[in-house]
Amino acid sequence: MRGRARAALGLLGAFTLGLGLLGGVGAVSAPEAAADGCYTWDRTLSRGDSGPDVRELQVRVAGWASSGDPVDVDGVYGPETAAAVQRFQRGYGLSVDGIAGPETFGKVYELQDADCTPAHFSWGEFTSGDGSGFSGGNTSTSNVRANVLRTMWKLEALRHKLGDRPLYVSSGFRSVSHNDDVGGAPNSKHTYGTAADLTGAPSLCELARQARDSGFNGIIGPGAPGHGDHTHLDTRSSRYWNAPSCF
Ligand SMILES: [Zn+2]
Q1: Which ranges carry the Peptidase M15A C-terminal domain (predicted)?
Q2: Which residues are catalytic, by number?
Q3: Among 185, 181, 192, 187, residue whose Cα is nearest residue 220
Q4: Which of 7, 144, 157, 203 is 20 to 30 A removed from 17 (C-alpha atoms)?
Q5: First CA to last CA distance, the chain
Q6: Would residue 136 count as lying in a domain?
Q7: Would 161 be classed as within a structural domain?
Q8: What values do phi and psi take at 169, rounded to 5?
Q9: Which of 7-16, 51-60, 145-154 has the weakest average pLDDT?
Q10: pLDDT tens digits, residue range 184-222?
């Protein structure tokens, strides 16, 4: 048990580093109290709170942003975070108060795996198609992993909103050379781990439409050149939606 708890802490350390957090590990409660192999919150969070635990929460609720306006993962529990928590609570049938307490964290624990990925996505779905894992991109491997994790949590929300339909990721992270090989845009979001291409059900347009409310402000889908067979979703600094056959 101790070994497992220590392993969990080790994982957390890696995860925390991956997110580029400052002092995150120190905020963790004793391993014995861990509710989850990935991360355990040890206080209720609401508007006005700040810290690494708020940041961890923001990563998990980022898919419940308002339309086209991603939740800032800044460690500050402002109105935008409270609104995202409310949407998360409503989406999963919890009491809706915008406060992250035991019920909300309980749902997060239920949704996350010990490696911090959400229940329905795994790291292997996002590695570069040339076998280079998460290396060789336009940012460090740890940044890529942190970005991929954030993308996964948005996709988890998208999946739930689409009626818990499985989503198929045809391309996640790409190394720069793999991106060149597949004809990706120069400096593509895929080379940072902030993008995912989806195929299949329910439909490319359905994916594109619902993504608008799931924290993706980059959407390129049907009707845009080269996007007849997948819908591209990403996170970028300002909104770019281009799916003229859908909306
Ligand atoms: Zn793409």
Answers
A1: 143-234
A2: 227
A3: 185
A4: 157
A5: 52
A6: yes
A7: yes
A8: -95, 110
A9: 7-16
A10: 998 999 999 999 999 988 999 999 999 999 999 999 999
Domains in the chain, number:
2
The residue whose two tokens read 């940012």 is: 139
Tell me how far the alpha carbon of residue 232 lies from the centroid of ligand 1, in angstroms.
4
> With the C-alpha atoms ordered 127, 131, 134, 140, is the resulting torsion angle positive or negative?
negative
Strand partners, 241: 219
The per-residue pLDDT for 197 is 98
In the predicted model, what is the mean pLDDT of the chain? 89
110: left (phi over 0), alpha (psi -120 to 50) or beta: alpha
With respect to residue 224, please indicate whether it lies within any of the assigned structural domains: yes
104 and 9 housed in the same domain: yes
- 132 Cα: distance to centroid of ligand 1 (angstroms): 18
Does residue 171 register a pLDDT over 60? yes
Q: Which two tokens stand for residue 178?
A: 């793999």
Identify residue 32 by its one-letter amino acid code. Answer: E
Tell me which residue range forms the domain holding 211: 123-242
Cα(88) to centroid(ligand 1), Å: 26
Between the CA of 17 and the centroid of ligand 1 the distance, in Å, is 27
What is the whole-number distance in angstroms between the Cα of residue 224 and the centre of ligand 1? 12
| 208 contacts 231 by C-beta, under 8 angstroms | yes
Q: The whole model's pTM is what? A: 0.86
**173 CA distance to ligand 1 middle (Å):** 9
Last residue of one domain, picked from the residues 111, 133, 150: 111
